[in-house]
From TrEMBL:
<dbReference type="InterPro" id="IPR042239">
    <property type="entry name" value="Nop_C"/>
</dbReference>
<dbReference type="InterPro" id="IPR045056">
    <property type="entry name" value="Nop56/Nop58"/>
</dbReference>
<dbReference type="Pfam" id="PF01798">
    <property type="entry name" value="Nop"/>
</dbReference>
<protein>
    <recommendedName>
        <fullName>Nop domain-containing protein</fullName>
    </recommendedName>
</protein>
<feature type="domain" description="Nop">
    <location>
        <begin position="123"/>
        <end position="235"/>
    </location>
</feature>
<dbReference type="InterPro" id="IPR036070">
    <property type="entry name" value="Nop_dom_sf"/>
</dbReference>
<dbReference type="InterPro" id="IPR002687">
    <property type="entry name" value="Nop_dom"/>
</dbReference>
<dbReference type="GO" id="GO:0031428">
    <property type="term" value="C:box C/D methylation guide snoRNP complex"/>
</dbReference>
<dbReference type="GO" id="GO:0030515">
    <property type="term" value="F:snoRNA binding"/>
</dbReference>
Amino acid sequence: MLRSGIIPETEKNPSETIPDLREIILSYEKERINEEFSGDQYIIKIYSVKRELDEIINLYLEKLLSIYMIMDINYGNDPCAYFNKLLNSDVNDIDRLIANMGIELCQFREKISDYLYSKLNNYMPNTVKLIGYDLCLEFLWKSGGLKNLVKYPASTLQILGAEKSFFKHMRTGSPSPKYGILFNYPGLSSLPVKKRGKIARIIANKMAITIKMDYFGRSGDVQSMRDYILEKMKN
């Protein structure tokens, strides 16, 4: 009977110089798992949970609106505000349980967000200062990690998230996209349409700098970059 992990051809004449395949595979898998759940990869996985939770909360709200449509609850497009107001309304016990479930989902999401912000602030502090937590998480998630982000030129950062429009442009010759995820940069959507592409390019150029700063563990004057962007947006 062959010993576990020993190459069959060496069973009759085992040698200390012949590697144990089982040990090699186990060692490789341990390294791969550690890499998969370390650094930005762990942040990305937790952020994926938060994204799913956002969708669950929105779907839950949609169901409740259909149930309590006769109740005029002003919640300002904030599901968590709706759950709280529903709980404080004149409803029965089962309705309170339903509202409490929504509140617990919101509280769970808030704890995940706090954790992500803390981790991201230590991992990509310069980019966070430039574009904010939520947008930085989107870039990290969309790219698959900081190691990928640092390889992207500013032009790729500018249209990241608009892949469908870009491939349509390449295939049919339609107008190329001017921005992707960057459309959510504070204030960009309120600018005139013809000016958004120029400002998005400026933001992407600054991002390319802060991402490299984060990757190589450097720091710099990010505030002046933000001021420059704001000045261009005002002009």
